[in-house]
Design goal:
Elements lengths: L8 H34 L5 H31 L7 H24 L4 H30 L1
Helix pairs in contact: 1-2, 1-3, 2-3, 2-4, 3-4
Protein backbone atom coordinates (compact mmCIF):
# COMPACT_ATOMS: atom_id res chain seq x y z
CA UNK A 1 0.00 0.00 0.00
CA UNK A 2 1.45 3.38 -0.93
CA UNK A 3 0.98 6.63 0.89
CA UNK A 4 0.26 9.97 -0.73
CA UNK A 5 1.62 11.75 2.32
CA UNK A 6 5.24 12.46 3.11
CA UNK A 7 7.91 11.79 0.48
CA UNK A 8 10.72 9.32 1.12
CA UNK A 9 13.72 10.97 2.86
CA UNK A 10 16.08 10.79 -0.09
CA UNK A 11 13.49 12.11 -2.53
CA UNK A 12 12.36 15.11 -0.50
CA UNK A 13 15.51 17.09 -1.33
CA UNK A 14 14.99 16.48 -5.06
CA UNK A 15 11.39 17.51 -4.56
CA UNK A 16 12.56 20.76 -2.96
CA UNK A 17 14.86 21.50 -5.91
CA UNK A 18 11.98 20.75 -8.28
CA UNK A 19 9.73 23.20 -6.46
CA UNK A 20 12.50 25.79 -6.78
CA UNK A 21 12.69 25.25 -10.52
CA UNK A 22 8.90 25.62 -10.71
CA UNK A 23 9.12 28.88 -8.75
CA UNK A 24 11.64 30.28 -11.23
CA UNK A 25 9.59 29.12 -14.21
CA UNK A 26 6.54 30.85 -12.71
CA UNK A 27 8.62 34.01 -12.35
CA UNK A 28 9.71 33.85 -15.99
CA UNK A 29 6.12 33.30 -17.16
CA UNK A 30 4.98 36.28 -15.07
CA UNK A 31 7.67 38.52 -16.59
CA UNK A 32 6.62 37.47 -20.10
CA UNK A 33 2.93 38.05 -19.27
CA UNK A 34 3.63 41.54 -17.86
CA UNK A 35 5.71 42.55 -20.88
CA UNK A 36 3.16 41.17 -23.36
CA UNK A 37 0.25 42.84 -21.54
CA UNK A 38 2.13 46.13 -21.63
CA UNK A 39 2.88 45.81 -25.34
CA UNK A 40 -0.47 44.52 -26.61
CA UNK A 41 -3.00 45.90 -24.11
CA UNK A 42 -1.81 48.88 -22.07
CA UNK A 43 0.74 50.72 -24.23
CA UNK A 44 0.05 50.03 -27.87
CA UNK A 45 1.90 51.98 -30.52
CA UNK A 46 5.21 52.60 -28.77
CA UNK A 47 8.55 52.14 -30.50
CA UNK A 48 10.53 48.92 -30.16
CA UNK A 49 13.15 50.72 -28.07
CA UNK A 50 10.44 51.87 -25.63
CA UNK A 51 9.13 48.30 -25.37
CA UNK A 52 12.66 47.02 -24.83
CA UNK A 53 13.25 49.58 -22.08
CA UNK A 54 10.01 48.61 -20.37
CA UNK A 55 10.86 44.92 -20.71
CA UNK A 56 14.23 45.43 -19.06
CA UNK A 57 12.72 47.46 -16.23
CA UNK A 58 9.77 45.10 -15.69
CA UNK A 59 12.09 42.10 -15.85
CA UNK A 60 14.21 43.61 -13.11
CA UNK A 61 11.35 44.43 -10.79
CA UNK A 62 9.20 41.36 -11.40
CA UNK A 63 12.25 39.09 -11.51
CA UNK A 64 13.60 40.23 -8.16
CA UNK A 65 10.40 40.62 -6.16
CA UNK A 66 8.26 38.11 -8.02
CA UNK A 67 11.01 35.52 -7.71
CA UNK A 68 11.02 35.91 -3.94
CA UNK A 69 7.23 35.73 -3.78
CA UNK A 70 7.06 32.62 -5.96
CA UNK A 71 9.85 31.01 -3.94
CA UNK A 72 7.81 31.58 -0.78
CA UNK A 73 4.64 30.23 -2.41
CA UNK A 74 6.29 27.11 -3.79
CA UNK A 75 8.23 26.47 -0.59
CA UNK A 76 4.96 26.66 1.37
CA UNK A 77 3.36 24.20 -1.06
CA UNK A 78 6.23 21.80 -0.37
CA UNK A 79 5.94 21.89 3.42
CA UNK A 80 2.96 19.51 3.85
CA UNK A 81 4.88 16.92 1.81
CA UNK A 82 7.82 16.74 4.21
CA UNK A 83 8.10 15.84 7.88
CA UNK A 84 10.98 17.89 9.25
CA UNK A 85 13.71 20.44 8.55
CA UNK A 86 11.23 22.86 7.04
CA UNK A 87 13.47 25.93 6.82
CA UNK A 88 16.28 23.88 5.29
CA UNK A 89 13.91 22.57 2.64
CA UNK A 90 12.72 26.12 1.99
CA UNK A 91 16.31 27.18 1.43
CA UNK A 92 16.79 24.29 -1.01
CA UNK A 93 13.72 25.52 -2.91
CA UNK A 94 15.41 28.93 -3.08
CA UNK A 95 18.68 27.40 -4.25
CA UNK A 96 16.87 25.52 -7.02
CA UNK A 97 15.24 28.75 -8.20
CA UNK A 98 18.52 30.62 -7.92
CA UNK A 99 20.43 27.98 -9.89
CA UNK A 100 18.03 28.30 -12.82
CA UNK A 101 18.10 32.09 -12.59
CA UNK A 102 21.89 32.31 -12.58
CA UNK A 103 22.21 29.75 -15.37
CA UNK A 104 19.83 31.83 -17.47
CA UNK A 105 21.74 35.00 -16.63
CA UNK A 106 25.05 33.51 -17.65
CA UNK A 107 23.53 32.16 -20.88
CA UNK A 108 21.86 35.48 -21.70
CA UNK A 109 24.20 38.11 -20.25
CA UNK A 110 27.47 36.17 -19.93
CA UNK A 111 27.57 37.56 -16.39
CA UNK A 112 25.56 37.76 -13.19
CA UNK A 113 24.30 41.30 -12.53
CA UNK A 114 24.01 42.59 -8.97
CA UNK A 115 20.20 42.39 -9.16
CA UNK A 116 20.46 38.61 -9.53
CA UNK A 117 22.57 38.38 -6.39
CA UNK A 118 20.07 40.53 -4.50
CA UNK A 119 17.24 38.35 -5.87
CA UNK A 120 19.07 35.21 -4.69
CA UNK A 121 19.33 36.59 -1.16
CA UNK A 122 15.62 37.47 -1.17
CA UNK A 123 14.75 33.98 -2.39
CA UNK A 124 16.80 32.35 0.37
CA UNK A 125 15.10 34.54 2.97
CA UNK A 126 11.68 33.75 1.46
CA UNK A 127 12.33 30.00 1.40
CA UNK A 128 13.64 29.92 4.97
CA UNK A 129 10.73 32.07 6.09
CA UNK A 130 8.21 29.72 4.47
CA UNK A 131 9.69 26.81 6.42
CA UNK A 132 9.77 28.80 9.64
CA UNK A 133 6.14 29.91 9.31
CA UNK A 134 4.99 26.38 8.51
CA UNK A 135 6.93 24.91 11.43
CA UNK A 136 5.48 27.53 13.75
CA UNK A 137 1.95 26.82 12.57
CA UNK A 138 2.50 23.10 13.26
CA UNK A 139 3.73 23.90 16.76
CA UNK A 140 0.73 26.11 17.43
CA UNK A 141 -1.65 23.42 16.17
CA UNK A 142 -0.06 20.87 18.50
CA UNK A 143 -0.64 23.19 21.46
CA UNK A 144 -4.35 23.50 20.75
Amino acid sequence: MTSTGIAAPRNRWFLAVGYGLLAEIATIITIIAVVMAHKYIFARGLSESEYAAFGESAGGWVGVWGGAIYTYIFARRLMPRISSRFSEHGIVVALGATALSIAGSIAGHQAVPFAYIFAAVLKIVAGARAGFVYNRSLALNRMV
